[in-house]
């Protein structure tokens, strides 16, 4: 009668085979979540800065300063390349645009960056 094969050590091989698939998948999902968090935070700050600058008797530079203030302490300064603001035309109305240019490293917080930009717009108040 043939003897059954010894299966000792097969759990280690199974663990290695499964972990080579699951660990990169988990890290990829984590990276996408981190990228979406940073992008949404920058979008909210740019929008708030544009609304702040659109109030009567404020300049676009006030919106830029407000955006920088909101981002300070939430997103590291190393990720933000520039924050700019300008007056613009929104559907025929005077408005304010705040743009944030940033980059996000593809491997956690290391590696070359993926550049992206977000904008916030608001219609400027008039004194009429």
Describe this entry's structure for a reader.
With 128 residues, the chain is α+β, with helices and mostly antiparallel strands. It has one domain. Helices cover 44% and strands 26% of the residues. It is built from 2 helices and 3 strands, in the order H-H-E-E-E. A 3-stranded antiparallel β-sheet has the order 1-2-3, covered by helices on one side. The termini are far apart.
Write a concise synopsis of the structure shown.
The protein is an alpha+beta fold. The chain is 44% helix and 26% strand.
Question: How many extended strands?
Answer: 3
Derived from helix and strand composition plus strand pairing, the structural class reads: alpha+beta
Strand order of the largest sheet: 1-2-3
Low-confidence segments, given as residue ranges, are none
Helix content: 40-55%
Number of domains: 1
- Summed up, the helix count is 2
Fill in the keyword field for this structure:
3-stranded antiparallel β-sheet; 128 residues; single chain; rod-shaped; alpha+beta; 3 strands
Fold topology:
Elements: H1 10-53, H2 60-71, E1 80-90, E2 93-104, E3 114-123
Antiparallel strand pairs: 1-2, 2-3
Helix pairs in contact: 1-2
